[in-house]
Design a protein that fits this description.
homodimer; Rossmann fold; 3 domains; 5-stranded parallel β-sheet
């Protein structure tokens, strides 16, 4: 008995044949364990131990070749070595609390984003902060050195997996590059693939070599191949996560014309400037549309795009009427909204101060029976789906502030600052264009 | 009496001459208020009201010219119109709780970062989340339309201000570009200037026009001029804040050679790859240095740079011995450390589980009388200052998690992911090189 759990000295002592064996033992013993597993009839192994191909010089060994031979002989498929294991949110779909987890520290929200990664960190540690990420995880596979199961095998699995809607990859080396690209081309018209590829720089080459024992390829060749296969490439881990979050909503813009709604000039200018640099178009709205919008703003507002409502406190207009008018116009394909969301809550706090409260004269725009987020943000989300126009909300308050949490609870996509969402929107539009072109070809 | 405070009908009714008048009234009345202020002897006005130069077409007016004339006649200097006001952390330096604040929602930590901004948001709203920013604020000036006091006046003030160590600017237009550049050149050898300049794109032009009524200039010309004057340019608001935080520590690297310490391969690879793309050098460490480092790592570690300690739990080595050896070597100028900081705390939680705890066999590396962060992070900070080698720490846990807060409490620079710190480090090294070159010229 180990740590209170029943234990056996060897695999052969176990009365049943295990469905899955997880190996965390010194590398020297691993071939023997594989042999015993094979003889027992085990077909699946997760090999977490390190100390195989990544060792060089006088520490170099042939253990990898040994276990590969044994696995082949017995028909064993295995992940690793030098990996962090696997995570599966859907082991029993009917039981929401179930998960098969040898990899991620904290239990994750169940969802449709699946990962295959040559870095254990990308497969697990980035989820140390689940509160900060409205991202449901489906599967996560840490591949380590890929002595057997590689990233192409994972793609093949995710391709047909109905619990995978978006695929995230971390790649240091592609051993079967042609197979990878063929598969990626088949997948990306239906399911987006987001990839972090590291290579190209000298330091990265050296780091990759000591990490997975691979030789990273030429970054430019990878870039071109990924582009052709419709793979969304990023170098930033937060963008990787942002894109996963955004793509699982499956709301695809029809073009790249961005409408910007703010209650504040500076952020509008910054969003517009950055958006054009990232390849989005921020079109000037037609006179006709501007006239329609006039109804919903105060005279100091600017309507050309960015729309600057200049701190008007009419939330009904801000959250619903203005975006709805934009969506119906056909003049824009995506919307970003910067504003001091939840200002009303802030006011409520202010009103607690006696000196202010006794002079209260704020119009009560809120019906008493429905929370503000259900009244304002939920209808906005419905419009977003109906018109297939993604909407990103930006709230300068902390992502975990009470009002931010309320917005997030509706399923809306929320950011705290405006740099990340602009870049994320640009990549979403790019991918959407790729999908559209392909489907037009097929017609 | 208004809201419980004593009030007067006009400025002339006030018994004393006010040091400062803050005007939040409809634009039409503003000239009259200025006249009254002038007659009363008021010399300083903050004009928050909008509705001046930013209005166009049939709403265009000459109010701006009217108030300028009155101000000139009476020798009044004023900020605005269409601004959010001012913030001053140091109104009574001896009283830590004091601040003059017409601009920022929540009270800020006192510090040495001063802002002058043509966007009220950049001067105030970005501080809605003070818990998430270890950045002390000195002054913040929201300039609005700059009818009188402009960004050059602010630079002149900050140049000699002993409470300003780092200057942050948000610029849509420079009315006195030559004066600005001359002043910037004088300031940047002593105090860094970080600037967000928005312009160049069509949408930005339009947005700027309706925001401050300015015509944004050619972005390329600005880029070149800023570079010559040593101004650190960024387009990202988080980078603006990161740089402010990092520069106020006044630890300047002597070159751009980055040492990377991790306990995990993937992040090391990603940091190295991104760092080289951002212009940093990630040098392979000498054999001699690698031999010195061997003492502090386990055999599976990689020592070439990135240094990957592969989840060794010896915190004394990770936080102190390895960085110290790097610093003393003269082979690197800056350090980034990615690791699961506070893992020991995590273990403590684990040990609370009875089933695990009774098999406890973790070596206790912690003296009982000193908190871990004082034992580990504080000495690291001292080394960083001594060798003038900046150290950025990266903890994948939430920025406000208990261990992150402990690290931050020591004054260390902490990030959650590795994209932002790499870019920030690259700009810090650039600025440091600029400073160094200038001081070599003078010699």
């Amino acid at each position: 008995s180990v740590m209170g759990f029943k234990a056996y000295k060897t695999i052969s002592d176990v009365p049943e044949t295990p469905d899955l064996v997880i190996v965390i033992l010194p590398p020297k013993i691993v071939p023997q364990i594989f042999q015993e597993c094979g003889e027992k009839g085990v077909k699946r192994i997760v090999l977490i131990s390190g100390g195989f191909r990544e060792l060089t010089g006088d520490r170099k060994n042939t253990l990898r070749e040994e276990i590969q031979k044994i696995a082949e002989k017995f028909g064993i498929r295995f992940i690793g070595p030098n990996c962090l294991g696997i995570y599966n949110s859907w082991i029993y779909p009917e039981d929401e609390t179930s998960a098969l987890n040898t990899a991620i520290w904290e239990k994750q929200q169940r969802g449709y984003f699946s990962i295959a990664s040559q870095s254990g960190t990308l497969a697990s540690h980035i989820f140390f902060d689940p509160d900060n990420l409205d991202l449901g995880i489906s599967r996560s596979l840490s591949l380590g050195n890929e002595a057997d199961i590689d990233i192409v095998d994972c793609l093949e699995y995710y391709k047909e997996d109905d619990k995978t809607k978006v695929i995230g990859l971390y790649i240091e080396e592609l051993k079967r590059a042609k197979d990878f690209l063929r598969l990626a081309k088949e997948i990306t018209p239906r399911k987006p693939i987001i990839a972090i590829y590291v290579g190209g720089s000298q330091a990265a080459q050296r780091a990759v070599k000591s990490h997975t024992g691979s030789l990273a390829g030429n970054a430019k060749i990878y870039d071109a191949a990924f582009k052709e296969a419709g793979v969304i490439k990023t170098e930033l881990v937060l963008e990787f996560l942002d894109l996963a979050r955004v793509l699982t909503t499956e709301i695809y813009p029809k073009g790249n014309r961005l409408g910007i709604i703010t209650n504040s000039g500076g952020p509008g200018v910054m969003i517009a400037n950055h958006a054009e640099k990232q390849g989005l178009v921020v079109p000037k709205l037609s006179e006709e549309l501007q006239n329609q919008l006039k109804e919903y703003v105060i005279p100091t507002a600017s309507l050309k795009n960015p729309i600057d409502t200049t701190f008007d406190m009419n939330f009904q207009n801000y959250y619903i009427n203005i975006p709805k008018t934009l969506m119906q116009s056909g003049e824009i394909d995506a919307i970003m909204m910067y504003g001091v969301f939840g200002f009303q809550d802030v006011l409520k706090n202010l009103l607690k101060h006696e000196r202010v409260a006794k002079y209260e004269n704020f119009p009560d725009q809120v019906k008493k029976d429905l929370p503000l987020e259900k009244m304002l943000v939920s209808p906005l989300l419905k419009l977003s789906k109906k018109y297939s126009i993604p909407v990103f909300l930006i709230n300068p308050q902390n992502y975990n502030s009470p009002w931010s949490k309320k917005i997030r609870s509706t399923g809306a996509i929320l950011f705290q600052y405006w740099d990340r969402p602009v870049r994320c929107m640009a990549k979403l539009c790019d991918y959407s264009q790729y999908k559209k072109k392909l489907s037009e070809k097929i017609k």
